[in-house]
């Protein structure tokens, strides 16, 4: 205690003035260099690169704009949300697309889907529904006598379920305090320390795995949907239910693989006896008592969310069994339903104070506009790559893949996407870069585009090795329970398992689910 107080009151010695100025100058110079890197790369490409095709000037300009945008994304010289808006002025200035056409990408049905889903997620967070759900499920799995493997399964399953309907990062932010709260009474050494590692790793990885199973669980899935719609406008849209039929079985297999890995590495047999002295149901019951009984507002938010999920799942079912969307001549999209149900939250009273509704606009100030803008940029870039002819030019450099069997290409795509996310950029940006190229590769080897687009997008989410690879990894790392070695021990076998699962499911279940979505191109 004394040491902590002393640390806080100690004055940090000032740097010499010339050293401070040198440091500031070097930072400013580096930042300026990164800002100038984008326009410089664009200028060099526009001056010296020659492109073939029906529109060589437009293709060349699009390639230059791509270099500009990706340089800013990778270096974060300009804040990512602002960089995500740059196509709005770069595309018209370079003659790639009209301003109105670019702007439409930022308010696509996919964007509507995201906005409605995020508003509902904020309502769940505001009323602590996620916390109540987590504690109740954990209480069920915290048996007597204590079974650490079963308790770990309960915590991981709860996180995965929440992440199915909320973005990965908010899920991790919400679930980590719940998980670490359960671990507070455990000592920091021995078997207890290993179990703490398993719980923290389980939360960060299942938040990613759960998000993969639904269309709205992660931004990557939504970028994929938007690009499918952009490149193949005549094709049947990739709906919530279609994705779920593939994503859920895949995520379930990954979830089982993760749980087995964590049990083998961190929860050996016999550890329950050691942990039972420190961990029981009393702490969880106290947490639930603090929350109190479920109020009207919580029940209504849960009802709205449940109805939304049912509407998503039944809007379009199969060709033989049309969903309720056929009643509206299939003009209704998943975004339509998402916004409609979110609107109800601003109409239904919360019965706490007179005139108050379940949600108001002040509660929506935490909307993650950075993700919304990044999705819009991804859709705009996908359309620009397609219409400018850049995709056709790049495809000619990939002709050699025409002789490569699909069973070898799909795992390679998954690994490359994952490594890009680990080492260079975010999974959203990786998907934006990779998917247009994968569409051309699919044409070259004569397979359905989604059979490569999906491994590329899902593989970008297999960023399990490094603390800095995803925001969820950072959150877990900052708890102090895990280090880089722990992430490598768990993440590496999980990445291998994920690649194997995708390699097995894509030619089988993937072909069954996705090939029926005709591209409209022959």
Describe the secondary-structure layout:
Elements: H1 2-9, H2 17-48, H3 56-75, H4 80-85, H5 87-93, H6 99-105, H7 109-126, H8 129-141, H9 148-165, H10 168-182, H11 190-212, H12 219-231, H13 240-266, H14 271-275, H15 281-291, H16 296-314, H17 334-344, H18 369-388, H19 390-396, H20 406-423, H21 427-444, H22 450-459, H23 471-477, H24 484-514
Architecture overview:
- This protein is mainly α.
- The chain has a domain at 109-366.
- It contains 24 helices and no strands.
- It starts with a helix and ends in an 8-residue tail after the last helix.
- The model is unreliable at 1-15 (pLDDT under 50).
Write a concise synopsis of the structure shown.
The chain is an all-alpha fold.
Helix content: 55-70%
Q: Oligomeric form of this entry?
A: single chain
Strand count, sense and barrel status of the largest sheet are: none
What separation lies between the terminal Cα atoms? 73 Å
Poorly predicted parts? 1-15
Tally the beta strands.
0
How would you sum up the global shape?
Answer: globular
Q: How much strand content do the residues show?
A: under 5%
| Secondary-structure-derived class | mainly alpha
Mean pLDDT: 81
Radius of gyration: 25 Å
- The helix/strand series, from N terminus to C terminus, equals HHHHHHHHHHHHHHHHHHHHHHHH
Give the count of helical stretches: 24
């Amino acid at each position: 205690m004394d040491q902590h107080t002393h640390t806080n009151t100690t004055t940090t010695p000032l740097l010499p003035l010339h050293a401070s100025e040198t440091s500031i100058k070097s930072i400013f110079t580096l930042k300026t260099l990164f800002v100038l890197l984008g326009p410089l790369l664009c200028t060099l490409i526009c001056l010296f690169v020659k492109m073939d095709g029906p529109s060589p000037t437009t293709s060349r300009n699009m390639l230059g704009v791509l270099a500009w945008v990706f340089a800013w994304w990778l270096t974060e010289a300009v804040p990512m949300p602002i960089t995500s808006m740059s196509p709005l002025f770069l595309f018209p200035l370079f003659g790639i697309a009209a301003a109105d056409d670019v702007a439409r990408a930022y308010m696509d049905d996919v964007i509507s889907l995201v906005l409605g889903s995020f508003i509902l997620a904020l309502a769940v967070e505001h009323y602590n529904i996620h916390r109540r759900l987590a504690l109740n499920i954990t209480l069920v799995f915290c048996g007597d006598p204590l079974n650490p493997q079963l308790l770990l399964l309960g915590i991981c399953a709860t996180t995965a379920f929440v992440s199915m309907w909320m973005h990965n990062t908010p899920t991790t932010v919400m679930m980590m305090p719940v998980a670490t709260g359960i671990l507070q009474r455990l000592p920091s050494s021995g078997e207890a320390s290993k179990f703490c590692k398993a719980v923290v790793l389980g939360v960060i990885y299942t938040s990613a795995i759960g998000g993969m199973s639904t269309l709205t669980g992660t931004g990557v899935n939504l970028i994929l949907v938007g690009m499918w719609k952009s490149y193949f406008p005549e094709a049947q849209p990739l709906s919530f239910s279609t994705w779920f039929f593939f994503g859920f079985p895949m995520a379930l297999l990954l979830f089982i693989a993760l749980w087995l890995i964590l049990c083998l590495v961190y929860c050996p047999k016999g550890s329950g006896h050691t942990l039972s002295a420190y961990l029981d149901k009393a702490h969880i019951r106290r947490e639930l008592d603090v929350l109190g009984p479920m109020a009207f507002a919580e029940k209504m938010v849960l009802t709205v969310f449940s109805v939304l999920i049912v509407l998503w799942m039944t809007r379009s079912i199969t060709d033989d069994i049309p969903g309720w969307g056929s009643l509206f001549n299939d003009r209704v999209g998943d975004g339509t339903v998402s916004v409609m149900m979110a609107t109800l939250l601003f109409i239904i009273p919360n019965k706490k104070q007179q005139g108050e509704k379940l949600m108001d606009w002040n509660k929506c100030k935490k909307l993650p506009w950075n993700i919304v803008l990044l999705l819009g940029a991804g859709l705009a870039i996908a359309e620009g790559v397609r219409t400018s002819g850049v995709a056709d030019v790049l495809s000619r450099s990939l002709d050699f893949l025409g002789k490569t069997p699909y069973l070898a290409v799909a795992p390679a795509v998954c690994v490359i996407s994952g490594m890009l996310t680990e080492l260079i950029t975010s999974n959203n940006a990786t998907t934006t870069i990779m998917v247009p190229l994968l569409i051309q590769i699919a044409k070259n080897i004569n397979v359905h585009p989604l059979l490569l687009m999906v491994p590329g997008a899902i593989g970008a989410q297999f960023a399990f090795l490094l603390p800095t690879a995803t925001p969820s990894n950072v959150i877990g790392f900052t708890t102090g329970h895990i280090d880089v070695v722990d992430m490598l021990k768990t993440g590496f076998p999980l990445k291998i398992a994920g690649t194997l699962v995708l390699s097995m499911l894509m030619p089988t279940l993937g072909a069954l689910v996705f090939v029926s979505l005709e591209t409209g191109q022959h």
